[in-house]
Amino acid sequence: MLKKLRRLFLLSGLVLTLILLLTACGTKNTPEPVDEKTHTNFTVAGSGSNLPITQRLIEGYMKKSGQTITLPKSIGSGGAIKALRNNAIDLGLLSRPLKPEEVDQGLKQIPYARVAVVIGVHPSVLEEQITGDDLAAIFKGTKSQWRNGQNVILFSREEGDSTNEVLKKEIPGFKEALTESLEAKRWQVSFTDEEEAQAITQTKNSIGFTDSAALAVEKHEIKPLLFDGIQPTIENVEKGTYKLSKDIYFAYKEPLSKEAQTFLEYVWSNEGQEIIRSAHGIPLGK
């Protein structure tokens, strides 16, 4: 409960900070025309799952255009929704589809990449692969040791996290195992992708979750496990042999600012699409 309250407090603070900063800069709901030679700053913020690929896209765009884009640390998909409602950001980053009530509030989304969801372990773990049954058993506490006799340490994600939604869909019995483990408070829960990655890299005999782009861009010392005998690569996602994947989205309110429109045009360009692939994501096109 304390961790949930801490996360809500942090998200609220980050969103409020964005609102205050942009208000101080004179941000308006409908942007005024900007001279082509004037480069104004705009902000993109949201889910940690989007950050590795989006950071690469922003670096390429700023180098080419000279425009500045602010990309804060993760405020989560929920934080992005709040910030968009308050006109605090130009583009939100979501690792899940918009909910019907969010669409009804005038928000729109467009997917731009697909990443492989990775079940990863600390390099001290000898195992090279895992099954859905194994993972559910770890959550339930019925599989408690690795083959070297060391105790399993699981870093879970919170209920409603986009990775958990993928696992619920693809692994029979996972939903029940997750719910039971959260109610029992059996495992430590991470509330951001960065927190999860740090926990795994710093803890021997641990297991948790990341994705193909985070491993490629952020170079975490996490060993990816084969799932049901298949490597967690974007090539295997494209072939349909690796089943754990999720889409990441840009979310926005209309009218979209001129600066944001120009950035999205870069994302859909050949250069932008190649950046996504080089960051171990699958470009989804426009």
UniProtKB/TrEMBL annotation:
It is found in: Cell membrane. SUPFAM superfamilies: Periplasmic binding protein-like II. GO terms for cellular component: plasma membrane. It holds the Pfam family PBP_like_2. It comes from the Bacteria. It is a lipid-anchor. Gene3D superfamilies: Periplasmic binding protein-like II. One of its GO terms (biological process) is phosphate ion transport. Keywords: Lipoprotein, Palmitate, Phosphate transport, Signal, Transport. PANTHER family: PERIPLASMIC PHOSPHATE BINDING COMPONENT OF PHOSPHATE ABC TRANSPORTER, PHOSPHATE-BINDING PROTEIN PSTS. Part of the ABC transporter complex PstSACB involved in phosphate import. The complex is composed of two ATP-binding proteins (PstB), two transmembrane proteins (PstC and PstA) and a solute-binding protein (PstS). Belongs to the PstS family. This is PBP domain-containing protein. It comes from Desulfitobacterium metallireducens DSM 15288.
